[in-house]
Structure prediction request, 220 residues.
Amino acid sequence: MSDIKVYGIPGSPFLRSVEIALREKDLPYELCAMAPQETKQPEHLARHPFGRIPAFEHDGFTIYETQAIIRYLEDLLPAPSLVPESAEARARMNQVIGIIEWYFFPKAAAPIAFNRIIGPRLLGLPSDEAAIAEAMPMARTCFEVIDGILGAKPYLTGDSVSIADIMLAAQLDLFSECAEGRELIEGTSNLPAWLKRMKARPSFAATEPPQFLKETALAA
Prediction:
């Protein structure tokens, strides 16, 4: 396997999702750790014109966007698979990914985390309680829906880990840094045991960032 490089800010759930996928597939890689201010520099913009993370290189091929990278890894090395076999399970996986990317992160996790962690701890700003309150209904809906999709299954699409499990677990582990995040997770029937199961996986434990890096990544 040719050299794989992953660029990103340690602590970011998007970067961590890619790292977890790489470790699930036992693919060696080089983590090119970045500081938040580097994402808008010309060198990184050449990799990711939107100035976000992660960015990925493999044997001269470059790509960005978390799920695109993980799906590339799946095509590169199909076993162990991170995509379920049945059409129904694959559709459910894609549905959960859509919930994460369109509703949970931008409309719930990001505003709550900014006002509970980034602003107060890193920027010296007071929490905007109105913004948190505005985001909570969407957060509750996301947790209720995903908890229902999970049900009594070990993982979101059945008996094995999928891309959806990896992306959601990376997000919820970081979101649990907020009191609201912990409350929402603990208020569900199925997600606490699922998150504990995910955190026990070697790929998850191996990518656990130090606490100060989690906070820095939230500011990126």
Remarks:
- The first helix runs from residue 13 to 24.
